[in-house]
Structure formats: C-alpha cells, structure tokens
Design goal:
single chain; alpha/beta; Rossmann fold; 2 domains; 7-stranded mixed β-sheet; 9 helices; 16 strands; globular
C-alpha cells in the first residue's frame, strides 16, 4: 500500500484527498520508485482548480526524486537502488511510491540531494528552454521577468545573469524587492500596469526590452507588450491571473513588429533525448552553483492541501516540497 493524493472534481485545496492504494508491479519499460521528495509547481494548482483540465479522477504532481525499488521487463537504463529524479509527469507525483516509464528517470549525481532535485528539476527545465531555446539569452540581452520572488523566477533570474543578461525583475509587492535584488536583478520594479512600460523605458534609456517573460497572464499582458522594443519577443508562458485576452495580429505590428509565443514544457521535452539533455543541463547548473533550489518550506505528503493553500495565498516565497 502507498499513500497517494488524488482529487475527483476541480476546486480549492480541500478537494485533495489522501488515500492508501495498492501499487501494481512495474510493467515492461516501467519502474517503481520510493519517493523521498516531491516538487510542487503552480501548474499543479491550475490542474487542481480546473484552469488546466485533466481527466478525473486523477493524481497530481509532475516531479519527484527517490530510489528505484523495482524494474519491469526490458529496463536496462536503471537498476534497483539507483538514486533518480524525474519531471514533466506523468501525473501522480504526490505519492509515497509510484510506477512510471523508465525513460522519465534522470540519474542523480551523488552531490545532489533528493530535496534539491525535486525542488529544481521541473522549474529548471522550464528555465532552460525559456532562456536557451525560446529566446537565446546572452550578453547584451535586456529582459523583463515577472515573479522573481517565486521558485521559477529565482532560477531564471540567476541563470540569466550567468548568461550575461540585464534582468529587470517585476514583483507584486515591495516586500519582495530585496530578495529580487539579492538574486542579481539589475533593476526591480513593483508591478503597476499604468507605469511599468515607462519605468522599463527609463531604466533602458528608451530602448526597452528584447524579451519579456510573463507567467501571470491576463493582468499583466498588455503592460508586458508595451515593455518591448521593436521586434521584441513576448513570452506568455503561464496564466496565474487567468488567460490573456485574444490579440489582434495588427496590434503586434502597431507596437513595433513584435513577436509573440506561448511555449510549453511538453513541446520542449517531446523526445526522451531532448528531455534528458535539458535535465542534464539543469543538474550541471545546480552542481556548478549557477542555480539554487531555494526551498522555502516542506510539508508532509498528507498536508498537500495546506501546501496548495499557502502557495495560492502568497504566504510563501520560493519552492515548496512534499516529503512522504
């Protein structure tokens, strides 16, 4: 029997239930892992509340780290006792033990703890493709980044600075300014839709930004577009405030021949080889100290609902973990 967090209908944190379930033996190409740490991502919240629909009833969670407990037929990439982590699903990470495809497992270096791996891998892969594939950030890049005080934003800010970018961090409240500056942001702005573009223009001597990374959505989208220089790239990769309104193509032209993209982690980890390459880049950056896990708080697995409530309320700053 294994403790598993499930939900049968979309809703608030209270829909999450802890249950004891029998685990099947791993089938061909599968493994069973006993999890030591489980990462919580805002995507989990949007799947739970129905903003991102998933088939129900369902488990929840997309990343974790632990020890291989059993392997199915044909599995040669890992063995019982190996330390491993995974990201991008399949759904069901909120569990003491689970069965999943062997190709999803990433070997953990001895220097990387289970907690650090679970805190970084999903957010790190997201950061990696956003900074290296969606837009090739490097010396001379001026970027606007929302949510610097959060787990994903902290990783992106640190990695972007290592790559040589000028980072303009945007936070929701004054209390987060000091943390954003500590991460290396060259400028930190408290979001105000009416003045954000003017503040970005003032800091850049009128040049504005090459790229804006916006995971907020509806509340920030219009202001984000106005922060871009001609031929700049708007990266809308989340919707914590709701989906942005539809954009007229002519608007992009009128604002300076802007580019607009809505990337997803699924499209950037579409093959096992691509997934593994991005994951290894993340672990290498973690080992080198380029990025840090910045775990804010841990919760027992059965307190997943409380973790979600804290994440949504803004009472946390950094990464949250579940510990089975």
């Amino acid at each position: 029997m294994a403790t598993v967090i499930t939900f049968s209908a979309p809703g608030g944190p209270e829909v999450l239930e802890a249950r004891e379930q029998d685990l099947p033996a791993p089938g061909p190409g599968q493994v069973r892992i006993d999890q030591q740490a489980i990462g919580i991502n805002y995507l989990d919240v949007t799947q739970r509340n129905g903003a991102v629909p998933v088939p129900l009833p369902s488990g929840l969670g997309l990343e974790g780290a632990g020890v291989v407990a059993a392997v199915g037929e044909g599995v040669t990439s890992t063995k019982v006792g190996d330390r491993v982590a995974y990201a991008t699903g399949p759904l069901g990470a909120y569990a003491r033990s689970r069965v999943l495809p062997a190709e999803k497992l990433v070997p953990l270096p001895a220097s990387v703890s289970y907690e650090d791996a679970a805190a970084v891998l999903f957010k790190g892969i997201t950061s990696q493709y956003l900074l290296k594939s969606t837009y090739p950030v490097g010396p001379g890049t001026v970027m606007v980044l929302y949510g610097v005080a959060g787990g994903l934003g902290a990783i992106m800010a640190s990695w972007a600075k290592h790559l040589g970018a000028t980072v303009i961090g945007v936070v929701s409240r004054e209390a987060s300014v000091a943390k954003a500056k500590a991460l290396g942001c060259d400028q930190v702005l408290v979001f105000d839709a009416a003045s954000l573009a003017e503040q970005v223009a003032a800091f850049t001597q009128g040049q504005k930004a090459d790229v804006v990374y916006d995971p907020i959505g509806r509340d920030t989208f219009a202001a984000s577009l106005d922060c871009l220089k001609p031929r700049g790239l708007m990266v809308s990769f989340g919707a914590s405030s709701g989906a942005p309104a539809a954009v007229e193509v002519s608007t992009l032209n009128a604002k300076g021949s802007l580019f607009l993209t809505r990337p997803s982690i699924v499209a950037h980890t579409a093959t096992p080889a691509e997934y593994q390459a991005r994951a290894q880049d993340v672990l290498a950056a973690l080992e080198a100290g380029i990025i840090q896990p910045r775990v804010c708080r841990t919760y027992p697995l059965r307190e997943a609902a409380q973790a979600h409530a804290d994440l949504e309320s803004g009472r946390t700053s950094g990464t949250l973990l579940l510990i089975p």
